[in-house]
C-alpha cells in the first residue's frame, strides 16, 4: 500500500510539474518550476524560480501568484478527478506574507485585550484569514471569527468571554 501511495504521489508531482511548466510557457514566462510533495500539509508545493520576473509573477498583493495556484488546482482536478491542495510560491514571498499577517494578528489581539472591543480586519483572502485564525488560536482571552459574504467577508478578533 505504501508503494502505491508513493507512486501515485510521484505521478501527481510529475503531472503538476508538466502543467506548471506548460502554463508558464503559455504566459510567456522564462521562470523555472520546482515541484515537491509536501506530505505534512497534504499538498503539492510549486516553487517558481526567477529573479527578473519575480514581481510580475507575484502581482499586486500576490494576485497573480494566487491565480496561478488556482489555475493549477483546477487543471489537476480536471486531469485526475480529485482536488489536491496546490501551494505556489516565488522565493520567500509566502514566508514574508505569513510573517506580516502574524504580526498584524498579534497587534489586533493586543488592541482587543486593551480595549475589550472587537477588531475588524478587512480585505483578506481565505488563505490570509486562515493564517490569522491559526496565529491567534492559542492566545487566551481572544477568539476569531469570519463574518460576511464574498467580497464583504472580514475577520473579527474578539475578546472571549
Low-confidence stretches: none
The proportion of residues forming helix, as a percent range, comes to 40-55%
**Discrete helix count:** 5
The helix/strand series, from N terminus to C terminus, equals HEEHHEHEHEE
The CATH superfamily of the largest domain turns out to be K homology (KH) domain
Q: For this structure, what is the CATH class of the largest domain?
A: Alpha Beta
Rg from Cα? 18 Å
Main sheet characteristics:
3 strands, mixed
**Beta-strand proportion:** 15-25%
Descriptive report:
The protein is of the alpha+beta class and 161 residues long. The chain folds into two domains: 2-91, GMP Synthetase, Chain A, domain 3, CATH 3.30.300.20; 96-159, 2-Layer Sandwich (Ribosomal Protein S8, Chain: A, domain 1), CATH 3.30.1370. Helices cover 52% and strands 22% of the residues. It contains five helices and six strands. The chain has helices spanning 2-27, 54-58, 63-80, 93-115, 126-136; strands at residues 32-38, 43-49, 85-90, 119-121, 142-147, 154-159. The strands form two sheets. The chain has a three-stranded mixed sheet. It has a three-stranded antiparallel sheet with strand order 4-6-5. A hairpin with a 6-residue loop joins strand 5 (142-147) and strand 6. Helix 1 (2-27) crosses helix 3 (63-80) and helix 4 (93-115) crosses helix 5. The longest helix is centred in the N-terminal third of the chain and has 26 residues, at 2-27. The protein starts with a helix and ends with a strand. The mean pLDDT is 92.
